[in-house]
């Protein structure tokens, strides 16, 4: 193939520079362009509020330099900066200048414009040696966090915190197996056993949160009403596990598995003056920022019988001092003073989830076996006694029937007698 033919074919294919050079520049979120090649003639830097475009005057890689006056940015024709550098041409524009358009996608804000090379004849000639070219330019910004045009700390609540506070939190209270790995399959207990309770919050897209059990109350029914039924506080005074003060070893688990999870054990019990063999536990759960230092209102404290003192799951020990006298706030934290006389709807599930920013979550019923007046055991005993009595009655009737039959047969049979004569 002749060299002249090869040159003609090359010019035919590359006569339009759009076929020889990529048009779109993809920008990384940090403002660093992703060049198609190491010698890309157009480079873009995406800054916080502006973009900087640097154009190599050897735009087509032919060794012929383009004129700075032939280069503009956007449909408004923004002019390049005056530069002493004769090899490159620079543009500096705000994101909303030079007819820049903006597009909102699922995960990014995309600002787009274009670099235009529109050659004009020079030296009074009527010929051109380069083509008109548009190079699309994009700057992509991820839709996360706050974007500010000034490096200052805002004094208002950031947008992320505002949106997060409008989203709801999912609180849960679960009954777990002894190893804490799975949820307990049966709600039955015997006195002397330990219930393993796990409180948790699903925070979604919120900033990191720390969960606290503010107070828990046990009742024999699903309505935690102090006025109509016996009750017992397990946790009170903004996080004091007061059930551990009695003859039990109830305590929070240390350390907690995650900031948004809190585990504690309760030695099972029943109400002495109640005929029920069921128990419901209702806890008020709340959250605080994970980086907030625990205090008297946000704490998890257990009573250590060995040292006869209160110890927190995290934080300084003095935040638990108020657990001894119950003065952990300006007002008492007992259930009735916080909630009045709460009337709860009847719960049929022992694992009930509530969706709110603070929640009263009820778990139950916990069923106790082996209790003297256990209704379930009483029912079984009554049934067994009835079955035994019924069996004894049938046996007695069978015995009497057999006796009557035997007596009748005896009366029907003739009596024979033999006289024996003794020899003289």
Helix content: 10-25%
**DSSP strand content:** 25-35%
User: How many distinct beta strands?
Assistant: 21
The structural domain count equals: 2
Named CATH architecture of the largest domain: Sandwich
**Distance between the ends:** 167 Å
Overall pLDDT score: 74
Query: How is the largest sheet built, in terms of strand order?
Result: 15-16-12-10-20
Rg, please?
Answer: 43 Å
Main beta sheet: 5 strands, antiparallel
> Would you list the SSEs in sequence order as H and E?
HEEEEEEEEEHEEEEEEEEEEHEEH
Under CATH, the topology of the largest domain is which? Immunoglobulin-like
What sort of overall outline do the alpha carbons produce when their principal axes are compared?
A: elongated
Q: Kindly report the name of the CATH homologous superfamily of the largest domain.
A: Zona pellucida, ZP-C domain
Reconstruct the topology from this structure.
Elements: H1 3-14, E1 26-27, E2 33-34, E3 42-46, E4 50-56, E5 71-73, E6 88-94, E7 101-104, E8 108-117, E9 133-142, H2 159-166, E10 169-176, E11 188-190, E12 194-202, E13 209-219, E14 232-235, E15 251-252, E16 261-267, E17 278-289, E18 301-304, E19 309-312, H3 335-339, E20 354-356, E21 359-369, H4 375-412
Parallel strand pairs: 11-21
Antiparallel strand pairs: 1-2, 3-4, 4-6, 5-8, 7-8, 8-9, 10-12, 10-20, 12-16, 13-14, 13-17, 15-16, 17-21, 18-19
List keywords for this structure.
424 residues, alpha+beta, Immunoglobulin-like, 2 domains, 5-stranded mixed sheet, 4 helices, 21 strands, elongated, disordered C terminus
